[in-house]
Amino acid sequence: xxxxxxxxxxxxxxRIGITLFAVLLGAGISLGAEGAKxxxxxxxxxxxxxxxxxxxxxxxxxxxxxxxxxVMVPQxxxxxxxxxxxxxSPGILSRRGWRHDSIKAGDNVIMVVHPMRDGTPxxxxxxxxxSDGRVFTTEQGDSALER
Length: 147
Description:
It contains 2 helices and 6 strands; from the N terminus they run αβββαβββ. The chain is of the alpha+beta class.
């Protein structure tokens, strides 16, 4: 019976290679996670302010990564301004009772948002109250929405 010839130097080189590969893989995953985290930032919204608007849904886009709602808000001048609302993911919202057909274009709603920092008409959706009495919130136990 013959034994395979092993070379200590090759074994050490192999271990160093595996370790280096593991470190680089971990670094790559970490960098990728930071990119995903940055993608899901809500930094453009002002979390210190809450704005309530009333209008008519023009679109409700139930898809990843975030659900979008557009509301036409009538102004005293008679014109209407479109407010865009960005919400959580469909997965999070479904755990809070939302569905793909919870609201639809044409529904009259009151929408509560953290507004855009730059004053653009839009914000992070916190709550939508439909004229038929249904209420949908995006955060569990958010006491600011009880007002």
